[in-house]
């Protein structure tokens, strides 16, 4: 059976899909079987970040509505991650129950399933939350993002997840010292959630959105993904601020 994580946030654009792609790829490099599922109906992007957009024919909406078999919808990305694309339209067609049934049926074949949720706490979030048993909430270190991340976290806590962790993305050590951005302790306090890790602001991650190419292995973000992946696998990895 797999560990099924929802990746959620309050505000949009904080790096959920970037994180889903990075951590899925890193786990696949460590020989884990990983399925990444884009749950952002109408605004999908994870196919671009996993560099497999050209291979997507069907999506999980087609699976739920019996237009194709699940193995026809799963794309094998070159990096070793299996990927399921989100439908382009008709959010109303899918119930949390039908989505959960599909994910549960896939669960025995994977070590990890990541559900890349849309921003906010609307119906797409509810769909992903209903199928997950663990959660990762993501924020950048500014008050507006942290507050809405805390709100998303509170919603997830109500669903009875077995574990919820916080990821702080786009972190900059120097501006944090000097300006009004929150520090890591404040992010933890405000969200009342245990820290999973920190990913620094890294321009090579922004390039990934354009080219689909992952950051080089010595880039600060690649090293952060490596540490976070270790923690997800139960390793005791030190916290690094860079
Ligand atoms: N640590 C980082 N450093 C620099 N840029 C980043 C970082 N993380 C993400 N980005 C960039 O921020 C933008 C938004 O990232 P992404 O699409 O992953 O966010 P999201 O939370 O999934 O957005 P949405 O809510 O729209 O789904 C992208 O251009 C991405 O490359
Ligand atoms: Mg996204």
Describe this structure in words.
The protein is α/β, with parallel strands linked by helices. The protein has a single domain, classed as Rossmann fold (3-Layer(aba) Sandwich), CATH 3.40.50.300. Helices cover 41% and strands 18% of the residues. It has eleven helices and eight strands. Strands 3-4-2-5-1-6-7-8 form an eight-stranded mixed beta sheet, with helices on both faces. A hairpin with a 5-residue loop joins strand 3 and strand 4. Helix 1 (16-29) packs across helix 11 (220-232) and helix 5 runs parallel beside helix 6. It is globular. 46% of the residues are buried. The model has no long low-confidence stretch (mean pLDDT 92). The structure holds adenosine-5'-triphosphate (ATP) and magnesium ion. Magnesium ion (MG) binds next to helix 1. Residues 16-17, 40, 45, 116 line the site of magnesium ion.
Describe the SSE topology:
Layout: E1 3-8, H1 16-29, E2 34-38, H2 46-49, H3 60-64, H4 70-73, E3 75-76, E4 82-84, H5 96-106, E5 112-116, H6 123-131, E6 134-139, H7 143-158, E7 163-171, H8 173-178, H9 184-191, E8 194-200, H10 203-211, H11 220-232
Parallel strand pairs: 1-5, 1-6, 2-4, 2-5, 6-7, 7-8
Antiparallel strand pairs: 3-4
This protein binds adenosine-5'-triphosphate (ATP) and magnesium ion (MG).
């Amino acid at each position: 059976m797999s560990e099924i994580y929802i990746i959620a946030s309050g505000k949009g654009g904080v790096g959920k899909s970037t994180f889903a792609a990075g951590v899925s790829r890193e786990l696949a490099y460590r020989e884990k079987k990983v399925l990444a599922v884009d749950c952002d109906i109408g605004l999908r992007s994870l196919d671009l970040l996993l560099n497999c957009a050209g291979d997507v024919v069907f999506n999980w909406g087609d699976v739920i509505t019996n237009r194709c078999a699940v193995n026809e919808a799963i794309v094998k990305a070159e990096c070793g991650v299996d990927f399921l694309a989100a439908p382009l339209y008709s959010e109303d067609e899918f119930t949390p129950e039908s989505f959960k049934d599909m994910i549960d049926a896939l669960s025995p074949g994977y070590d990890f399933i990541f559900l890349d949720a849309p921003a906010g706490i609307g119906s797409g979030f509810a769909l992903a939350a209903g199928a997950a048993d663990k959660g990762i909430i993501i924020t950048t270190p500014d008050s507006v993002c942290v507050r809405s991340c805390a709100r998303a976290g509170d919603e997830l806590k109500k669903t009875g997840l077995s574990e919820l962790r916080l990821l702080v993305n786009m972190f900059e050590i120097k501006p944090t010292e000097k300006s009004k951005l929150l520090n890591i302790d404040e992010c933890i306090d405000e969200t009342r959630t245990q820290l999973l890790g920190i990913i620094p602001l890294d321009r090579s991650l922004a390039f990934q959105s354009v080219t689909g190419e992952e950051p080089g292995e010595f880039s600060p973000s690649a090293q952060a993904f490596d540490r976070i992946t270790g923690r997800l696998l139960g390793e005791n990895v030190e916290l690094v601020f860079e």
